[in-house]
Predict the structure.
Amino acid sequence: MSNTAILEIDGKKYEFPIIVGTENEVAIDIDKLRGETGAITIDPGYKNSGSCKSEITFLDGEKGILRYRGYSIEDLADKSNFLEVSYLLIFGELPTAADLEKFETNIRKYTLVNEEMKNIIDGFPKNAHPMGVLASLTSALTAFNPKSVDVSNEKEMYEAVCKTMGKFLVIATWTYRKNMGYPLNYYDNTKGYVENFMRLMFELPTGPYKIDTKIINALDKLFILHADHEQNCSTSTVRMVGSSHAGLFASISAGVSALWGPLHGGANQAVLEMLEEIQKNGGDADKYLAKAKDKEDPFRLMGFGHRVYKNFDPRAKIIKKAADDVLATLGVNDPVLTIAKKLEEAALQDEYFKSRNLYPNVDFYSGIIYRALGIPTEMFTVLFAIGRLPGWIAQWKEMRLNKEPIGRPRQVYTGSPLREFVKTENR
Ligand code: ACO
């Protein structure tokens, strides 16, 4: 392939370098476009625009490939654990046993959240959506940890990373405890990160809390599968906010808000709401399958299809097995989950879905697992955020260390040309 691209405007030719990534992805570098031609490009939704070069995650939607730092998602989900994957994403290499121990110890150092944060939670209405509360609390961490705001060296950055990993998990579960009217729990530094999540959520002062290790392993896998997905909406938001040198907490808080939307992380909640609606209306999965295929009907089967994965979502394959394991371990008998199974089987054999490559995506199965674990639907996106946290941190860190310029897109102005101001009385 040639290493330049030629653009012709008004009969004049301009040459731009072509950049080729590790996996032969091709990009035209238009850094000098405006300076040389006076023109800009326009690409709403950034469907054709790379915002950065990144060494963190590789994704090929056509081939169903997802890799973190070169390791396949299948290998990581099978052989690693969430904290090890977090280290890999954030620091670039798999940790030695000593590195991992140090990382875990440093996270544990920061698992206590300032008691005054409880006053902030008390200010929210009891039924506030947990994602809104989580975004606010994450932002509030800035006020309680001012040293982590303006990181000027790698040591300060490392501390900010460990603080975020330690405190975010705790405040994420507090949004649920507040909603339930339960006392807020503390992280238990003698237990693992994912086990702590379940304890922080569900352990009550009134009795012992037991949890099957199979459940912890399934959740651990789920967090690994969600840990990064290159330049998606929330991650791009984190990088954009961080590019102004806003601190890590503020950048992550913005990422939480971006993830909340139903077109992004909010889809896992939408899947369960759809299943509950099907149940309420008689549980006829075939009827809803027919509705999804009817072009006159706006209904879509939530949890099916993906913008990037047009063959299969490699995460969905892994998560389907985890969902089956969890359901078998818990022996749940839930009519909503029975509908999910029926829908999945029917859609996978249906010509409409087969011919359009519409397979269940990660949100379809994650919702099923969360429901089986007794996690309320409104908390589903919070779990996505916990899983995505190391990815956001890794991307923010890469952006800062690469000294990327402030994110500031341009626009094509289509409003009114210059006009004269008219005083109110003359309008
Ligand atoms: N149910 C029924 N038909 C569907 C569905 C669905 N879930 N998804 C796509 N189709 C059909 C479309 O109607 C279209 O049919 P046509 O070719 O006859 O017109 C064809 O499949 C292609 O669909 P597009 O909308 O062009 O696909 P796109 O890539 O734009 O959309 C999306 C992907 C948004 C994920 C879509 O499949 C969808 O809405 N799915 C349901 C919502 C969902 O599960 N979102 C979570 C995504 S995963 C994540 O964000 C973590």
Residues 416 and 423 are 18 Å apart (CA to CA).
